[in-house]
Amino acid sequence: MAGSSPEREPVAARASARRGIPPATVARLPGYLRALHALAAEGVVTTSSDELADRAGVGSAQLRKDLSWLGSYGRRGVGYDVEHLSSQVEVALGLTTQRRVVIVGIGNLGHALANYSGFADRGFGVVGLVDADPAVVGTTVAGLVVRPLDELRAIVAATDASIGLIATPAAAAQEVCDALVEAGVVGILTFAPRSLRVPPHVDVRAVDVASELQILAFHDHRRATGA
């Protein structure tokens, strides 16, 4: 791992590198951060690219290339400073300030998401819960009162939420998505099994459990048939 210590890299150079980080690299950064946090919890101060890559499930060459986009090259014979590299990845991912989240759809999945403690550990705060069912509106989940959908804009404005989680049935997902966009949300994570249309300034990520299971079924079928 050749190169100077990341602490000596010019701040402007690091910022410039972050602006052009490829999407594929961005997708791997959370895995690196998870591995770094695990190392820190074990009391590890410095780590090699081989060790970090193994924990993140990538090749060491890929890891070094990805981290070079952050202006981080490690130190020859020493490796990467775990605390400093964690900070670099957090800055690149925009995790230096807490991102506020509104969850729409407080059924079984919405309940689970609202009560998930991992959000706070990773820099996200759930600040609002919304549902269209009158039987659910007014109930309290994870310390928050569930509000009706027509109050979504007011909730986003009052809490400065920038991310919306959609945990509704597929039929309602586009309507909810439109409402989140109109309210000012710029990032949406949807668990509804359908594609969503959003304007260019809004980012959408989808978690489709059924599709992932179908992909696993395909590979299992290939193994079973010897293909």
Automatic annotation (TrEMBL):
Record bears the keyword Nuclease: no
Residues of the CoA-binding domain: 95-195
DNA-binding region: 31-70
Keywords tagged on the record: Cytoplasm, DNA-binding, NAD, Repressor, Transcription, Transcription regulation
HAMAP family: Rex
Subcellular localization(s) per the UniProt record: Cytoplasm
InterPro entries documented for this protein: CoA-bd, NAD(P)-bd_dom_sf, Rex_actinobacterial-type, Rex_DNA-bd_C_dom, Tscrpt_rep_Rex, WH-like_DNA-bd_sf, WH_DNA-bd_sf
Name of protein: Redox-sensing transcriptional repressor Rex
The species this protein was found in: Cellulomonas alba
Main localization (coarse): cytoplasm
